[in-house]
Amino acid sequence: MTKTTDYTKVMQDMMASFPVDASAFQNAFKTQAAFGEKLSKVAFEAAEKSTEISSKWAKETLAKLTAAAKAKAEPADYTKAATDFASSAAELASENLAAFAEVAKKVQMETVELLMAAGKEASAEATVAVKKATDDVTAVAKKAATAAK
Q1: What's the confidence (pLDDT) of residue 131?
Q2: How far apart are the C-alpha atoms of 67 and 81, rounded to whole Å?
């Protein structure tokens, strides 16, 4: 009878002959976590600033609306109050939308900077990892070739 090949053992032996550097995975995880932290910081700062703008806008609008809602002595005063409110609401909208645009622009710039830095870092790490893997595989191949002689 022929003996059945134990493929589990063959796979274990094959995988053992290929060196794997677990520190590369750990470094990649740490790098990704740091990148996520920086990106989260940008997002949270933008959310905080946007909330401040929205709150300020709401308070100013309510103050203007309160002034417009007060009782007037003459009917023409109501028209003037409505016109003044519409004018100030348009001005507030313009100012606050410009403030939101500044927040968006800042987020965009910081995100691009982070992505560019992460890309450079990932490229450098990949180059080092590929060189190390190539050196390791070459060493294993030389060792196997020497053993075969």
Answers
A1: 83
A2: 8
